[in-house]
Amino acid sequence: MVICLPPGTLVKDANSGELLVDLKQSHQQFTSAGGGNGGRGNLRFKSSIQRAPRRFETGWPGEKRTLFLELKLLADVGIIGFPNAGKSTLISKISNARPKIADYPFTTLVPNLGVVRLEEGTSFVAADIPGIIEGAHEGKGLGHQFLKHIERTRLLLHLIDFSDPDRESILNRYHKLQAELKSFSPALSQKPQILVATKADDPQSQKNFHDLSASMVKLNPVVFLISSLTGEGIQNLLWKIKEGLSKEGPSEEKQITRFYREQEI
Ligand SMILES: Nc1nc2c(ncn2[C@@H]2O[C@H](COP(=O)(O)OP(=O)(O)OP(=O)(O)O)[C@@H](O)[C@H]2O)c(=O)[nH]1
Ligand SMILES: [Mg+2]
């Protein structure tokens, strides 16, 4: 029996939890339980006196194994932020993904993947995940369940809605999201991040960016102000992402994270 699974599926032994294979490549195959040897069929018992034998042998039973399958998406860039930060709007602007967008929190319920074509021949894959809120590690909002999908990315875009008139809450949200990342996985919280202040078309965002950019740069040296409505700042952001992805990554991630040549997608 052949079971087709999406690339990025981890196959584990359900009893021991042992990782059997990480299916990172498209069309990769793995035999988790071998079939038993077959018995001899009627034809093998045919002789000069027995032309149509009824005798046969049953085969041996095959291996049995209970598997636990876990999908961790393969993407180069993860887009994170509080609900309504503009994550899905950005991925729909820069890629072929067409996620649902709305002005209420938790519009996105499952991750979206999009291929971003940067220039002739180079592209990368971005993942937009549901919004994270304070207390996600205790299961609040949609909880941490989707953070595993950005564990294999090399770069995080941390989007913050700058159109909020409450300037303090902008900084607070930054710190809360970092705390949530850390409580999920220290490795994830140490991935390089680009801070992206969103909704630049809103005068309030411009004002907040003017007042807060010095504090933001202290927290993270790479800060961009963008608008997914007008396109402001997006091209520069994409070049920065390309630069970030071109840097050497840890060896395990290097195997799966790279620029794709267009014909491979
Ligand atoms: N003015 C303005 N509005 C924006 C911009 N980007 C997103 N929005 C609006 O902000 C709201 C939330 O956008 P989404 O892209 O759904 O936000 P999200 O971060 O994906 O939200 P969740 O899926 O709930 O986590 C929508 O009403 C968008 O139209 C922008 O650049 N400018
Ligand atoms: Mg969304």
Automatic annotation (TrEMBL):
Entries under NCBIfam families matching the protein: Obg_CgtA, PRK12299.1
Q: Residues of the signal sequence? A: none
**What PROSITE patterns does this protein's entry cite?**
G_OBG, GTP1_OBG, OBG
**CDD domains registered for this protein in UniProt:** Obg
- Provide the family line: Belongs to the TRAFAC class OBG-HflX-like GTPase superfamily. OBG GTPase family.
Instruction: Tell me yes or no: is Lyase among this UniProt entry's keywords.
Output: no
A molecular-function term among this protein's GO annotations? GTP binding
Name recorded for this polypeptide: OBG-type G domain-containing protein
Task: Name all OBG-type G domain ranges.
Answer: 75-246
Domain Obg, first and last residues per copy: 1-74
Entries under Gene3D superfamilies matching the protein: GTP1/OBG domain (2.70.210.12), P-loop containing nucleotide triphosphate hydrolases (3.40.50.300)
**Keywords recorded for this protein, A-Z:** GTP-binding, Nucleotide-binding
